[in-house]
Structure formats: structure tokens, C-alpha cells
Amino acid sequence: MKKLLIVLIALTLVFTGCSLFNKPPEKPAAPKTIDVSNVKGPSSVAIAADTSGHAATASAMVTSISGLATAFSSLSQTPSDWDNGTYDSGTWTWSDGYGLYSIKWEAVLDGDYYNWAVYIDGNFGNQAYNNFLYMDGRTRTNGHDGHWTIYDDSIAPPYDDNGHYPVFSWQWDINADETEAKWWLYNGALNDELVLYYHYTDLGGGDADFIMKNEDFYYRVHSEQNGSSGWVKYYETGSPDPNYLVWYVYWDATGHGGWEEWSGGTKIHEGTW
Predict the structure, then answer these.
(1) Quick check: 200 and 37 in contact, CB under 8 A?
(2) Do the beta carbons of residue 62 and residue 233 sit within 8 Å?
(3) Please, what's the b/e burial string for 34-70 (b: 16 or more CB within 10 A of its CB; e: otherwise)?
């Protein structure tokens, strides 16, 4: 009886094997984005009170930095027809048609990550592409970290995989509770020339820190209570070296604040409002 039961189980597994063992994995999660709207500069009250213009400059600077970060965190693309991907032999595939050209997305599960390849075929931007590798990347299954690279071609058409070179790359890393996020943008391949680096930290209670830098400059914004108070520091180097501090502006919830100008580690001008 026991042997018969084993045989019956084995036969059941054979005939249901496709559903039990070939079930496709979950589709990759879309890349995570982070809301940085709680990083704000001096209020309109502070700007009106500061006749020197430093508060207005700081406000515009913080708005620009947070706006760039929002755009940067949304840089990663996903197929337009996300819900209709097909799975076959270990690969998820999406196809987007745009008239004269089409884009094919492929994602292959590799442990906790998906490896991506994106191909373009047809006439796009006055060029004829023949299944050209336009973009590739690697993303965690939950979307919290990953990287992408976009390619172009250095030789005459028809384009193919033999002539592509990296135009720019980007990378992101967001922690599990989404209170800290980092983004990198490179000119060329991953880890080539760093164009911009962002680092956002949600400190809780409406407080946040934001850093934007490359090798030539370093901005840090500290925002409290959703921007009602805080400060901005600007350095003319890629790190917060006091000898390269140029500008410091601070403000509080009452609309008051102050500014300092520095050179070579020495404060040369200051004022309050």
C-alpha cells in the first residue's frame, strides 16, 4: 500500500510538473522612488525679511537640489505595458511598439536580482537600429537597489552589439525602511566619471539631511520640521572640508536667520536678518 501511494504521488507530480516546477517567478518590482519634499529652504517670511538676498538664494538652491533628486530618483524606466509581460524559459519579456521602431525588454532572475537587457529595433532618431542593445542593468527584485547603463554606437549603421559604448550610467541604493537613499550618476560606464551623487536621510519628525556632490563641489542641506528651520552649506570641493567652505546660511521657524561667507577656512563676511 505504501509503495502504491508513492507511485501515485510520483505520477501526480509528473502530470502537474509544469504548474509546480515551471511556475514563473514574480515580475521584477519597479525601481523605488523616494519623496524628498520635506527638504525645504527658507520660508517666504525669511526671504521677505532678508534684504541681502541670501535667504532667497538658499531657497532657490534647495528647491533646485530637491527637484533634481526627485527627477533623478525617477530616472529608471520600466516597460509601458508592465502588466502584460510574458515568461518563457527563465526570461520575462516585454515588447513596446512605437510606429517605426520597437523596444524589447528582457529580465532574467539571478538570485535576489534581475539582469536586464533592452533592445531597440527599427528607425529611431534618424538612425536605423538592428536589435541594438540600448540599455542594460541589474535591479533587486524589490526595486530597492540596482543600476542601469545606456549605450550608443561609435560606428556607422546598421548598428549591432559589436559597436556599442556606454553613454551614461546611474545607480541607486535605498534601505529597507526607505529612510535613507543614495543615487549616483556617471558619465560613461558604471563607476566611470562621477557626475553627481545624492544622499538623502529622513531623520524623522519632519527632519531630513540632503547631500549633493561631485569632485568639484559639496552641498549639504539640513531641514527641520519640514523646512521651517534649517541650514545650507556649500564647499568648493568634493567633501565637507572646512578649508573649502564658501557659504553658510541658516534660518529658524520665526523667519529670522543669518549668512556667512568663508575663504580658506576664515570667515570674511556675515550678516543676520
Answers:
(1) no
(2) no
(3) bebebbbbbbeebbebbeeebbbbbbebbeebbebbe
The pairing of strands 101-110 and 193-204 is unpaired
Secondary structure of residue 18 in the 3-state scheme: helix
Query: Taking the CA atoms of the chain, what radius of gyration do you get in angstroms?
Result: 26
**Amino acid code (one letter) for 120:** I
CB 146 within 8 A of CB 29: no
Spans of the chain below 70 pLDDT: 1-23, 72-78, 154-163
Q: Is the dihedral of CA 73, 191, 201, 264 positive or negative?
A: negative
Asked if residue 67 lies in contact with residue 73, where contact means CB atoms within 8 angstroms, the answer is no
Locate the DSSP E strands across the chain. 86-88, 91-97, 101-110, 113-124, 127-140, 145-153, 164-174, 180-187, 193-204, 207-213, 218-224, 229-235, 245-251, 257-263, 266-272
Alpha-carbon distance values, 109 to 51, 93, 199 (Å): 58, 12, 28
Structure pTM? Answer: 0.80
Instruction: Express each pLDDT in 102-143 by its tens digit.
Output: 999 999 999 999 999 999 999 887 788 888 888 999 999 888
Give the separation between CA 172 and CA 157, rounded to whole angstroms: 33
